[in-house]
Structures are given as structure tokens and as C-alpha cells.
């Protein structure tokens, strides 16, 4: 699914999750739900259940079985048992079925087991397919106002790498304003290693190929053979007559001398004709000939050959057909090797500015109404200063790529709202599995500190944390720590160095967060220590000081819970200040220490 607009099903201006209300009973005892691999989230709850109320001293049951068809692991089953000893009208056992967000689960089957003995058992099951999508109503309005401004014919669309720039533009042009623009896209990264002369040739080929899909009527012309003969003779009289005489002379041996005479005459006249032509002088015609040669030269600054004229003509027809503007989107500059970025930008800018030929004036070579250059301006700025020096005027270079100002794509608040909803669902499972809550703490911190792009976050969600399995090899506090599983999970997607750098940067960033760093730091301190002789407390060293951690083990999981720093037994080393209030900086330091151990 990753590629152009890889979050294509994620953006919306409304809520787009699908809610299914299903009934399971003795007559309708089987349900089947297909999973969407692009948005694989499915959750279950029940809105009511019941059975025949005839009293019985025997325990009667109804078993609801969930079969998850996994592409790698086969069928995984979970079930809920309802009994006549329960108050079924209030029991909501279905909600204890773990929501899934694994794209490898292709199908979910729900059925009543044959073991069921409750008569007339029925249950209403509410199924949520897919999460709420990211609401981009506000960013759509902001961008629409910007692009509608007639002054903005050149737009530099800037946003951080992985923030969904391409997806947003696809959503804007393909869904929100599908019939308002004719959109063409080129990807210079595909031909970044080509010569400067070839780059624009490939851009033209890209545009021509897309124009073929617009069902435009191309000019077609034909002439009969008689007319073609007459025009050729008229335009080439000497060549035609001499060729005719030579061929006639070969028909008859008596006229063979004529062919030799024609060849001798042509050889005699050739230097005379050349001298005659060299003595002719027409400055205006010479200037026109020179200009035409430059215009015909592929890749030159003023190139305007047949194919450029054809593209311009077809774009005009496309625009006039529905009276809607043409837009060219130049994509993927973020993915380009830094050595090629400015070379390609310079090739593009050479054909950007006001262009005049044959009395026509346009804002670019093809007369396109809007050209959108997609990149991260801050990334381009960094590369520019690295290449040309920090004192080189970047603004003077980059401002030729936009008409009024760069358009900075800002979608962070929408994305945070979407991901907060997911993390809240993790938080609610803290008592079911404390490691899920610990995972949400790390993700929330990375998100709030802007160390997770949208692309990274969605990849994390697609790799389902709840189904991620680890096997402890020791009973050490490190492997029993609540954060151990989360850090192991993150290391499957990042290197230890990448993760360490993220948490290192978080230490110096200022942002609001609701995370209790004192309590979470106690978890990490415990994970770095060793068990005391009583098997209940943990002793650990941090920042030159020794700490004793009071803690318990979760009865369902061998996980350290409720850790508290025992201040009475906190041994303070000479020269090292006692840390009583652990901050974000301390928490991040402890995460980095854990990552070092994992490495």
C-alpha cells in the first residue's frame, strides 16, 4: 500500500469508520466480517443479550466463538461464555475480545458453538470497522483559499518528510475538488541521474503520456499520392529533374552517356553554387535561422520544438473543454539525492518564468495555470547552506519557485487528534496488560515532541503491538520491566541509534504533556536494577546515585508494577545531587540507557 499518497484512505472531511450492527441467535448463528488491510482495525461490543428465562438448576451456557483467519498463523480463536447464572442483560463480555489492527488478519468469523445449551439465546454485536479518519476539513479550506488566489501561479508546497503531503494533495484534487482542476504529476526523482538536456525531455514525455488519458482529439491530416507528388516536385525541382533524367538514361544503353554528363555537370556546379550562396547576405533571415535552431534544440533554455508546441496546444484544449485550469505537481524532491536537488531545481526554474514566443505570453513554457513544487523547504534550506555556506542568501535563491510565499502544510493538530484517540484506547487497557499503557507513553511522548511523522506512526500501528510476542530468557528486572516489550517492538522498526537520537532531541524540546515522568521513570529505574535478596525490592544505580525501588509483580504477567522510589534508602553519593523529581530529561536518559542495554 505504500507509495504515491500512501495514506490515501486515511484523510477525510467527515468520520468514515463503518459501524455494523449484527444479530447472532440460533437461526442466524454465523457471521462473517472481511478485514481491510489498508485500515485493519476492528473492534467488538454488544448492545444487549438474552435467553429463554425458564428457570433451571443446571448451569446452561452459550459460547460465542471468534475465529481470526491470519495469513501467517492460520486460525486464531477466542471465545466468550454466557451462562444462565449471569445477568445477561448487563453483561458485555464481547468487549473483552481484543480489537484487531493486524493487516494479516483477512477474515473474522463469529458463530454460536454447538456446546451452547441456553435456549433462544441471542446477542446484538456492534462491530466498528476502521478507525475514524484524519479530519482535514480545516487544512483543505486553508489550501483552497491559497490556490484560488490568482497571484499564486507558482506554489512551493512545504511540509516535513512523511507528513502526508502527497496524500493531502491527492485527496484535495481527486476527492475534495475532483472536477475543479486538470492535474498532471511528474516525479523528477525518476530521472535525477539524467543529463540536464534529457531531464526536460522526460518531463515532456511524462506530461504527454498523461494527456493521452484525457481523451483529447489530436490533429490528424493526410494527402493523396498525386498531391504529395506535385508538392515534392514544386519544393525540389532541381533534385527531381536530375533524378528523373538519370533514371531514364539507364533504361536505354544509347542514353547512358546522359547519366555521366549529369554527374559531371553537378560536380562542376557544386563549388560555384556554394560560393554563390556564401555571398548572399540577409541579416534578418540569419537571425531567424539561428533563433529557430536554438528553439529546435532539445533541452536548451529556449527550446520550443514540435513536441513542446504540441503539449501547449493539447493543454489549451484540455482547459477549454471543461473551462477548468491545468495544474502541474512536481513531486518527491524530498526523496532525491542532495547532489541532484539543486541541479533539477535549476532545470525546472529555467522553464518557469514568463515565456514569450510568436506574440504569446505565459507564466511558463506550457502555459500551465498552477505549478506546485512539493518539498520540505527547511530540508532544502539545510542542504543549501551545507553546500554553499551558511552566509549564502537562501531566500534569494528559493523565492523564484513561489509567487507570493511558501505554503506551509500544517496538519499536526488533525493528526494528533486522530492518534490521541488510538492512544486513549491503549490507555484503557492498562489494567488488562500494563505493557500496552507503557507503549502508549512512549508513542505519546514521541508524537507530542514531533519525533514521529504520520508515515512512521501509521507503520507502527500497522505492525500490531498487541499481537507482538516476546519470550523472556531471564527473570531479570530488565526483561520484567513494563517498557521492555515496547522498546523491543520499536527496535523492529528503527535502529537503536535512530531511537536514541529521537529521545536525545526530546530532552531539549519544550511542549505540553500529561505524562507522569516521576512514575514512569520509576518503571525504567526498576528495569535497570537487580533484585534485592528479599526478592521484592530492586536496587539500581543512576546518575552516580543508588536507588531502592519498592514494587510488585502483576499476577497475570511477570511485569513489575507500582514501582516507588524508596527515598529512605536512597543512597546519595558524594558530589552527586539527589534527584527527587524526575523530569522529561531524566525519563529520556533512562530510555536511552535501556536502548543501550538492548543493543
Automatic annotation (TrEMBL):
Pfam families found in the cross-reference section: KAP_NTPase
Domain KAP NTPase: 152-466
Entry protein name: KAP NTPase domain-containing protein
Biological source species: Fluviicola taffensis (strain DSM 16823 / NCIMB 13979 / RW262)
Amino acid at each position: 500500500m505504500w507509495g504515491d499518497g500512501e495514506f490515501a484512505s486515511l484523510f477525510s472531511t467527515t468520520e468514515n469508520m463503518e459501524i455494523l450492527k449484527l444479530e447472532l441467535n440460533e437461526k442466524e448463528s454465523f457471521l462473517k466480517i472481511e478485514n481491510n488491510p489498508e485500515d485493519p482495525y476492528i473492534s467488538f461490543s454488544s448492545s444487549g443479550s438474552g435467553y429463554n428465562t425458564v428457570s433451571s438448576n443446571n448451569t446452561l451456557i452459550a459460547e460465542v466463538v471468534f475465529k481470526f483467519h491470519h495469513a501467517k498463523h492460520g486460525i486464531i480463536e477466542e471465545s466468550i461464555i454466557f451462562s444462565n447464572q449471569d445477568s445477561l442483560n448487563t453483561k458485555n463480555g464481547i468487549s473483552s475480545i481484543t480489537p484487531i489492527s493486524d493487516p494479516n488478519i483477512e477474515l473474522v468469523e463469529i458463530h454460536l458453538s454447538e456446546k451452547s445449551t441456553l435456549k433462544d439465546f441471542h446477542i446484538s454485536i456492534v462491530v466498528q470497522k476502521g478507525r475514524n479518519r484524519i479530519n482535514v476539513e480545516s487544512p483543505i479550506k486553508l489550501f483552497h483559499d491559497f490556490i484560488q488566489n490568482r497571484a499564486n501561479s507558482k506554489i512551493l508546497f512545504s511540509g516535513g518528510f512523511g507528513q502526508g503531503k502527497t496524500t493531502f494533495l491527492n485527496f484535495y484534487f481527486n476527492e475534495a475538488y475532483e472536477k475543479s482542476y486538470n492535474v498532471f504529476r511528474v516525479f523528477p526523482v525518476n530521472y535525477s541521474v539524467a543529463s540536464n538536456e534529457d531531464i526536460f525531455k522526460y518531463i515532456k514525455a511524462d506530461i504527454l503520456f498523461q494527456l493521452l488519458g484525457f481523451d483529447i482529439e489530436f490533429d490528424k491530416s493526410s494527402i493523396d499520392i498525386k498531391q504529395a507528388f506535385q508538392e515534392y516536385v514544386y519544393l525540389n525541382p532541381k533534385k527531381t529533374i536530375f533524378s528523373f533524367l538519370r533514371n531514364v538514361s539507364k533504361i536505354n544503353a544509347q542514353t547512358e552517356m546522359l547519366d555521366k554528363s549529369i554527374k559531371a555537370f553537378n560536380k562542376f556546379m557544386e563549388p560555384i553554387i556554394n560560393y554563390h550562396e556564401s555571398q548572399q547576405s540577409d541579416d534578418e533571415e540569419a537571425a531567424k535561422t539561428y533563433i529557430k535552431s536554438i528553439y529546435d534544440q532539445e533541452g536548451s533554455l529556449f527550446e520550443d520544438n514540435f513536441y513542446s508546441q504540441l503539449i501547449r496546444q493539447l493543454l489549451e484544449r484540455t482547459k477549454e473543454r471543461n473551462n477548468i485550469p491545468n495544474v502541474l505537481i512536481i513531486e518527491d524532491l524530498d526523496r532525491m539525492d542532495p547532489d541532484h536537488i539543486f541541479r533539477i531545481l535549476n532545470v525546472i526554474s529555467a522553464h518557469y518564468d514568463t515565456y514569450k514566443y510568436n506574440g504569446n505570453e505565459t507564466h511558463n513554457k506550457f502555459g500551465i495555470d498552477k505549478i506546485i513544487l512539493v518539498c520540505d523547504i527547511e530540508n532544502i534550506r539545510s542542504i543549501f547552506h551545507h553546500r554553499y555556506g551558511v552566509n549564502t542568501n537562501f531566500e534569494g535563491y528559493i523565492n523564484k519557485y513561489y509567487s507570493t510565499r511558501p505554503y506551509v502544510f500544517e496538519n499536526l493538530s488533525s493528526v494528533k487528534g486522530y492518534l490521541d484517540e488510538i492512544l486513549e484506547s491503549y490507555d484503557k487497557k492498562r489494567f488488562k496488560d500494563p505493557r500496552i499503557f507503557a507503549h502508549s507513553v512512549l508513542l505519546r511522548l514521541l508524537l507530542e515532541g514531533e519525533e514521529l511523522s504520520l508515515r512512521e506512526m501509521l507503520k507502527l500501528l500497522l505492525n500490531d503491538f498487541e499481537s507482538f510476542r516476546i519470550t523472556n530468557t531471564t527473570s531479570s528486572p530488565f526483561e520484567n520491566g513494563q517498557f521492555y516489550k515496547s522498546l523491543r517492538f520499536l527496535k523492529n522498526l528503527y535502529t537503536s541509534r535512530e531511537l536514541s537520537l529521537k529521545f536525545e532531541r526530546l530532552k531539549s524540546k519544550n511542549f505540553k504533556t500529561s505524562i507522569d515522568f516521576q512514575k514512569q521513570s520509576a518503571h525504567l529505574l526498576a528495569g535497570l536494577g537487580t533484585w534485592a535478596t528479599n526478592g521484592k525490592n530492586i536496587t539500581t544505580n543512576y546518575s552516580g546515585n543508588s536507588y531502592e525501588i519498592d514494587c510488585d509483580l502483576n499476577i497475570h504477567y511477570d511485569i513489575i508494577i507500582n514501582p516507588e522510589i524508596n527515598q529512605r534508602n536512597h543512597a546519595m553519593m558524594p558530589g552527586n545531587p539527589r534527584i527527587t523529581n524526575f523530569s522529561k530529561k531524566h525519563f529520556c536518559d533512562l530510555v536511552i540507557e535501556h536502548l543501550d542495554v538492548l543493543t
